[in-house]
Amino acid sequence: MKLSSLWLLALVPGAVCAVVKLGDSNAQELDEDGIPAILAQASNDPTIIGQEGAKNHITFGDGSSGNFKVSLFLRDGMDPESKRRRRKERRRRMKSFAEQPLSNGTTAALSNIRDYYYYGYIAIGNPPQKFSVVFDTGSSNIWVPGEACPSDACTQHRRFINRASTTFRASPQQIQIQYGTGFIAGDIGSDSVRVTGSLALRNQSFAMTRLEDKTFQLPRSQFDGLFGLGFTGGAEGGVRSPVDTMMREKILTQPLFGIKLFRGSENGNGEITFGSFDASYASQLQWIDVYGDIFWATTMEGIFYGDEPRNYLYNADKINAASASMTPAQRARASRKALLDTGSSLIYGDPFTLAAMSVRIGADTMTGEIPCSALGALKPFHFILGGRRFSMAPNEYVFHDPATGVCEVQWMPVSEYLWIMGIPFLQSYYTVYDIKAHKMGLARMKR
């Protein structure tokens, strides 16, 4: 992945994982049981807070400024017999899963895992082999476990058997992707990739992993692989991205796709529709330009709280003032950027801005926690993206864990330049991605 922000896989309840992108190389390795490995240094020991099975954090740093936390969940401890039963149940589910058809039409259903990530299903080859994947607007490659991969992360998931497909074509190309706490390497091939029952890419390049580190093992990774929705400019290995293949093969009724991510508290999952979008949102969509030809990024001009005049985005006023005399193209290059990312579990941005936002609402700048009793007095935050305002209500930017009674903000400091608007933001907005026009449309999700 060419994007400087990298992936981190953290744990979530029920033995599944959260997909989070980070730009910091200090991420700690998780051991085979999903517990942070003790990579102890004199002043940099990871600290786990909370009860097993409940929401927890790893805190990096020595207690001074500059620390940050990673939200995670620890799974309940299991004895060998429980683990055996879980493996047996997993095999049963995998067999049952392989017999289920893909979604009809051009809409793929997405499963919501505790608001931390969403995954759907694709089929590769002829006869088709099914896989569960995260549909990710923050990357541009497809990869699934390969048959020859000996890693536990591969053997625990469905693996692509290329010799079983009559339409598979091998390639001498190989791929390596280093994530925040994960790594995959594999071989590139091409085959038909079916996204829904009526939508198939006839000749799509994808990677079959031959190595996956423990980050992608069960129980933390329920999904088999990734399906990148970015442009070819963001693809590793010199391959064409799936969305560009869709354009090249002219299989979309309209050159776009739309995504809905419902909150778990609303008993919702999600869906992605290719070639059209929900017409009931047409009059409400606010369209913004995509910057560049890598991922679904746009300019970011400010962050405001309630009706206050202060711009909380660090240095935004200086940047906006300096770019006033520039051409639109120059102004876009000079401004901050924000990526709409369906593969990220939180909102990530520069530490200066997020610290100021936390202070303003009374949240702890180190832990992100805020008294739940304060939620009723909070006001919305307004994000200026592509010159348009998009708001998040307090119950959208603060996560309330009913199991522990803890409330905490849904953002984390990572990068000074690039902001990542992850799942908490995207749950608030129905998003339409116009591949040909390089635009994104956002409309308030209907409840």
UniProtKB/TrEMBL annotation:
Keywords of the record, alphabetical order, are: Aspartyl protease, Disulfide bond, Hydrolase, Protease, Signal, Zymogen
Listed name of the protein:
Peptidase A1 domain-containing protein
Family classification: Belongs to the peptidase A1 family.
In terms of PROSITE patterns, this protein maps to: ASP_PROTEASE (PS00141), PEPTIDASE_A1 (PS51767)
InterPro entries referenced in this protein's UniProt entry, alphabetically: Aspartic_peptidase_A1, Aspartic_peptidase_AS, PEPTIDASE_A1, Peptidase_aspartic_dom_sf
Q: Where is the Peptidase A1 domain?
A: 118-443
- The cysteines covalently paired via disulfide bonds are 149-154, 372-407
Q: Where is the active site?
A: 136, 341
Q: Which SUPFAM superfamilies match?
A: Acid proteases (SSF50630)
**Signal peptide start-end:** 1-17
| One example of a Gene Ontology biological process annotation | proteolysis
Q: Name one GO molecular function term.
A: aspartic-type endopeptidase activity
